[in-house]
Specification:
Helix 1 crosses helix 9, helix 4 packs parallel to helix 6 and helix 6 packs parallel to helix 7. The chain contains twelve helices and 15 strands. The radius of gyration is 19 Å and the shape is globular. The strands form four sheets. It has a seven-stranded parallel sheet with strand order 3-2-1-4-5-8-12, with helices on both faces. Strands 9, 11, 13 and 15 form a four-stranded mixed sheet that branches. It is an alpha/beta fold. The protein has a single domain, classed as Rossmann fold. The longest helix has 22 residues.
C-alpha cells in the first residue's frame, strides 16, 4: 500500500493536495484540527471543506490532531510506517498580522509543528518525500529596497534592474530584514526543512509561496487576499486597502498549479532544495488591478476605502521567479492565470 499524509488537509493547499494525490495513492491521511477557525473566526472555518473531502474522496481518512502534539503524530505514523511515501506539510498559522497577537502560538505551530513532522518522518518513513509549504515572507522586507518605479496602477521594478526583472529568485538573502513574527517562525521551519534534507539526506522540498489562492480558500481580512476580496465584491461588504496607494503587487498561483509542482518534485525529488513558487510574470496584479478585475467579473462596484498606513513588513512589489524550478522540472507550466482564478473564486462564492 502507498500512503500520502497531508497536514492542513481541509485548507486551500491541503484540500487541493488531497484531491490531486488521491488519484495516485491508495490512501490519503488528512491531519487538520480547524485551527483556522481559532485564528480568524467562524467564517474562516474549514469544517465545510473537511466534510466535502470525506464525501467526495473515497480513499481519504481524516484525523483531528494538533501538530504540536508529538505523541499523537508519532502514534499515527507508527501505525502506517514505511507505507507512507509522501508527506505534504501545509498546516500553519498563516497571517503575519495575527502572529503578533499570539507569538508563542504562532511559533509552536509553524516551527515546532514542522520539526515534529520532520523528525517523525525521519524515524518512521525516512525514504518518503517531504514537501514543506514555506512563504515569501522568509525574505522579510528586503524586496522593498529594490529600485521600484510607480506606474499608473502598480509598482514595478526598474526596467534597468536586470537581476530581478523576472521576479525574485532564491538567491535573495533571508537575513537582516523585518519579517513579521509569522515570517520569523516560517524562517525557522524553512531552515529546519532544508537541514533535514541536507544533513539526514532526506527527500525534502521547500516551496516559498507567493499568494496561494483558489476557489476552496476560506478567505478572511487577515489571510486569503483574492478570496476575501471577491467575497466582498459579491456581498458588498466593506474592504480596506492598506498603504502603498493600493499599487502593491502580488503574484498569485492557483492551488492546482502549486500542487502540480509538488507532484513533479515527488517523481524526481532532491534533498533540501528550495524553490520560489508563485504566479510569476504569468499571473500577478496590484491591489487596484485586482479590484478592477473583481468589478468586471461581478458587474458591481466594490465598497472599499483606502488607509494610508501599510501593514508592517508588507511587500510593495513581489513577483516570484520560478526559473530554478522550471529548469529542474521542465514539464511543469502554469495552467490558471489571474482571470481564471478570480472567475473560479466568484463562482464558488456565489454558490
Amino acid at each position: 500500500m502507498e500512503i500520502a499524509v497531508i497536514t492542513g488537509s481541509a485548507g486551500l493547499i491541503g484540500s487541493e493536495s488531497v484531491q490531486f494525490f488521491s488519484k495516485n495513492f491508495d490512501l490519503i491521511i488528512g491531519i487538520d484540527n480547524d485551527m483556522r477557525k481559532y485564528f480568524f473566526g467562524a467564517n474562516a472555518s474549514t469544517e465545510w471543506n473537511k466534510n466535502r473531502l470525506e464525501r467526495e474522496v473515497p480513499n481519504y481518512k481524516h484525523y483531528n490532531v494538533d501538530l504540536r502534539n508529538y505523541h499523537e503524530i508519532e502514534t499515527l505514523f507508527k501505525n502506517y510506517g514505511k507505507d507512507i511515501k509522501l508527506v505534504v506539510h501545509t498546516a500553519a498559522q498563516p497571517s503575519h498580522d495575527w502572529a503578533a497577537k499570539e507569538p508563542i502560538t504562532d511559533f509552536t505551530i509553524n516551527a515546532v509543528g514542522t520539526l515534529n513532522m520532520l523528525e517523525i518522518t525521519r524515524l518512521y518513513c525516512e525514504k518518503a518525500v517531504f514537501i514543506f509549504t514555506s512563504t515569501n515572507k522568509v525574505y522579510g522586507d528586503t524586496p522593498n529596497y529594490l529600485p521600484l518605479v510607480e506606474k499608473e496602477t502598480r509598482w514595478e521594478i526598474n526596467e534597468n534592474h536586470i537581476f530581478y526583472k523576472n521576479g525574485i529568485n532564491e538567491s535573495m538573502s533571508i537575513d537582516n530584514s523585518k519579517h513579521s513574527l509569522f515570517g520569523a517562525s516560517k524562517v525557522a521551519a524553512d531552515i529546519l526543512a532544508q537541514e533535514y534534507g541536507k544533513y539526514f539526506a532526506m527527500n525534502v522540498g521547500i516551496f516559498r509561496g507567493g499568494c496561494l489562492t483558489g476557489p476552496n480558500h476560506s478567505g478572511t481580512q487577515l489571510h486569503g487576499f483574492l478570496s476575501y476580496l471577491m467575497k466582498c465584491a459579491v456581498t458588498g461588504e466593506h474592504y480596506s486597502v492598506f498603504g502603498y496607494k493600493g499599487k502593491q503587487v502580488r503574484d498569485n498561483i492557483h492551488s492546482w498549479d502549486l500542487v502540480n509542482m509538488f507532484w513533479q518534485f515527488f517523481q524526481n525529488p532532491r534533498q533540501g532544495e528550495v524553490y520560489n513558487a508563485g504566479g510569476g510574470r504569468f499571473s500577478n496584479c496590484s491591489m487596484i488591478e485586482a479590484i478592477q478585475l473583481c468589478e468586471e467579473i461581478t458587474g458591481k462596484k466594490m465598497n472599499y476605502s483606502y488607509m494610508e498606513t501599510n501593514r508592517i513588513g508588507d511587500h510593495i512589489w513581489y513577483i516570484s521567479d520560478l526559473s530554478k524550478f522550471k529548469e529542474h522540472y521542465p514539464e511543469w507550466q502554469w495552467k490558471y492565470n489571474m482571470n481564471d482564478i478570480l472567475v473560479q473564486i466568484f463562482q464558488n462564492v456565489k454558490k
